Amino acid sequence: MVKTPQQAMKEAYTQVFSKAILVNADEITTITAHLLKIIFELEENATPNIEKLGRLKYYEAGKAEKAMEVYKEANEKMLDLYNNYCRASSLVFEILEVMMELDETIAEKIAAKLGG
């Protein structure tokens, strides 16, 4: 039987923390909130402006034309930053889900901190 990534994570987590799960609900939810703030900031401000900058054709020709390719790469790296924060956020949420499935007390603390 092929395991989903979440099933594999849950199994590994259970093996490692089978005796007790010690987690600070304040800290894990603070991490979650910070990640979401960063993602929102990138979505609302950085990404649209980076895309606008990428469409500008202010340098049309000349000796530095080859060097200007670095500018496009820099814009792409900034967009990669958004993708990396989204991935980090999804991993934190997966960890939260597994933790909440395994420990009802932690689930209650995390849900209370997240407003749910």
Structure report:
- This protein has helices spanning 5-16, 25-55, 69-102, 104-114.
- By secondary structure, it is mostly helical.
- The chain has one domain.
- α1 (5-16) packs across α3, α2 packs antiparallel against α3 and α3 (69-102) packs across α4.
Short précis:
With 116 residues, the chain is mainly alpha-helical. The chain has one domain (5-114).
Number of self-contained structural domains:
1
Tally of helical segments: 4
Helix/strand order, N-terminal first: HHHH
Amount of beta strand: under 5%
Going by helix content, strand content and strand pairing, the class is mainly alpha
End-to-end C-alpha gap:
34 Å
So what's the overall shape? Answer: elongated
The number of distinct β-strands equals 0
What gyration radius follows from the Cα positions, in whole Å? 21 Å
Largest sheet, if any? Answer: none
Mean pLDDT: 80
Spans where pLDDT lies below 50 across 5 or more residues: none
List keywords for this structure.
about 120 residues; about 75% helix
Protein topology:
Blueprint: H1 5-16, H2 25-55, H3 69-102, H4 104-114
